[in-house]
């Protein structure tokens, strides 16, 4: 059975989509090559070998915390749901499936990175190089099963309400570190940039303190490094065997734990769909300057964002990420940049709203069969997004400007207004152009289920909203630094976006609504791009 699953995974890897996998392979190989080259340079004394321990620790951290960045995304190529209906013992199926997890881009790239252990141990002779190769394989075994076990535990937690909050928090932490983690380093290199002083403080990569290296070598991610260095320096049999045995023992324990959790999941039948809360009629929301139809759509959207498990996680992470970014920036000397977090909040709000039509699923038929509902639906989704994300982003930029008295306050608030308007207008349009279909809304009970992978839509709307955020600042700089220029640019951009895009989105929904519903029913996004034939 293991051989059959290996063949199946190889065929899926060969015939499946290659865009994201190819990008990950090229990027990962480039980073791994830098670590290997660093190890070769360290052998010549041009770089302290402790930096290799730092690189390996960071690489291991990506295996441990990487699954937490996308807790709703199943990285396995072979889904365990495919094996649920087969007449096989769950333990046997899980054990056979476990070995296929070693085949993929991640283990290949990590193996290349860990070959730096062989390079470090090579000056000690053939025996030391052989021990370095054993340490490389043992370290890979531990990292792979540590990452797979974390992913399984995260998927299990997402089936609980506490897990939803945990998923939103961990996603927000990872996004905040990804988008603002560079700020402390930049503030260290350019500490007086806020005073228009571009004096660069150059860092020196000297020898790391011995206590730091000892701590890194004591971590599980440093056991392979510890064994390779001990073999090179002839530190004795115990110094080599103990970390190697620890790697194999902990890896086997995690391997067994993953197999047990997977067998338990295969043994458990799918649960019936039950509502999270009893249905109760809500009083309609009355909004000024809108029709009752638009107000009804706004009420529906606000309720959906709070009740749908997939949207609920996105909502919490989009609110929490800017606050964590402000915390990271606030502890540095770049507090003048805090008002810019308001524009970042609008960007994150846009990224979590690019798949709303696909998340609604086959309920789209109600919208298509109600006369005159398309225009109201588009405008209602835009108004609901503005209430949930647009207003908080603008208020956040204004509050941080008042607290920090930053010279970029006017530009930051203008950028937040422009970004909020562009995101409000473009998000429904991207949701129609690039739907990511997953589990239908009526069958979705917890955010761990496949609700679609909107990465393409998010990567599309990100530069669009980011351009809208920086455009007022660029116009203000070209206008001689006058304060009225970015404000006027933001107002004009908002007016154009909010007046033209809703009509275009409604016409697109009217023309492609039937095809979009077919996509929801069949889960085949290719149907959306096939030409439709009209009856004569």
Automatic annotation (TrEMBL):
Keywords: Membrane, Transmembrane, Transmembrane helix. The chain crosses the membrane at residues 21-42, 48-66, 102-122, 128-158, 170-190, 240-261, 317-337, 343-365, 385-404, 410-438, 459-477, 483-504. This is ABC-2 type transport system permease protein. It comes from Micromonospora aurantiaca.
């Amino acid at each position: 059975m293991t051989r059959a699953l290996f063949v199946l995974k190889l065929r899926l890897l060969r015939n499946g989509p290659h865009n994201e996998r190819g990008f990950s392979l090229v990027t990962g190989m480039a980073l791994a090559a830098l670590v290997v080259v660093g190890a070769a340079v360290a052998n010549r004394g041009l770089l302290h070998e402790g930096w290799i321990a730092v690189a390996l620790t960071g690489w291991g951290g990506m295996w441990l915390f990487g699954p937490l960045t996308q807790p709703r995304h199943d990285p396995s190529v072979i889904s365990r749901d495919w094996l649920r209906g087969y007449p096989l013992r769950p333990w046997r199926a899980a054990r056979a499936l476990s070995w296929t997890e070693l085949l993929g881009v991640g283990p290949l790239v990590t193996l290349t990175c860990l070959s730096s252990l062989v390079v470090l141990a090579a000056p000690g002779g053939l025996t030391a190089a052989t021990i370095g190769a054993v340490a490389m394989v043992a370290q890979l075994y531990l990292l792979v099963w540590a990452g797979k076990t974390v992913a399984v535990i995260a998927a299990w937690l997402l089936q609980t309400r506490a897990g939803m909050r945990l998923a939103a928090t961990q996603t927000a932490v990872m996004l905040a570190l990804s988008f603002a983690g560079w700020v402390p380093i930049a503030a260290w290199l350019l500490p007086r940039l806020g005073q228009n002083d571009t004096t660069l403080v150059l860092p020196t990569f000297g020898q790391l303190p011995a206590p730091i290296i000892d701590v890194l070598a004591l971590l599980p991610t440093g056991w392979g490094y510890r064994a390779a260095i001990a073999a090179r320096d002839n530190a004795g049999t115990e110094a080599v065997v103990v970390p190697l045995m620890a790697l194999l023992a902990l890896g086997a324990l995690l391997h067994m734990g993953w197999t047990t959790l997977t067998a338990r999941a295969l043994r458990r039948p799918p649960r019936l769909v039950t509502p999270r809360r009893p249905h109760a009629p809500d009083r309609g929301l009355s909004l000024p300057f809108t029709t009752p139809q638009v107000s009804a759509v706004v009420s529906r959207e606000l309720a959906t964002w709070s009740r749908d498990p997939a949207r609920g996680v996105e909502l919490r992470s989009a609110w929490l990420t800017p606050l964590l970014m402000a915390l990271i920036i606030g502890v540095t000397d770049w507090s003048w940049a805090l008002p810019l977090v308001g524009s970042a909040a609008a960007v994150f709000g846009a990224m979590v709203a690019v798949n709303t039509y696909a998340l609604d699923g086959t309920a789209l038929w109600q919208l298509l069969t109600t006369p005159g509902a398309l225009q109201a639906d588009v405008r209602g989704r835009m108004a609901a997004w503005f209430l949930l994300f647009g207003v908080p982003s603008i208020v956040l930029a204004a509050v941080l400007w008042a607290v920090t008295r930053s010279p970029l306050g006017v530009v930051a608030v203008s950028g937040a207004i422009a970004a909020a308007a562009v995101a409000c207008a473009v998000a429904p349009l991207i949701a129609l152009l690039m739907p990511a279909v997953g589990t239908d809304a009526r069958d979705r009970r917890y955010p761990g289920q496949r609700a679609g992978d909107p990465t393409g839509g998010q990567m599309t709307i990100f530069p669009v909203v980011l351009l809208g955020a920086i455009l007022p600042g660029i116009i203000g700089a070209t206008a001689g630094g006058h304060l009225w220029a970015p404000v006027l640019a933001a107002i004009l951009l908002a007016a154009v976006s909010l007046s033209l895009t809703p009509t275009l989105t409604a016409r697109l929904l009217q023309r492609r609504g039937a095809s979009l519903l077919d996509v929801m029913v069949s889960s085949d996004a290719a149907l959306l791009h096939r030409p439709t034939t009209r009856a004569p």
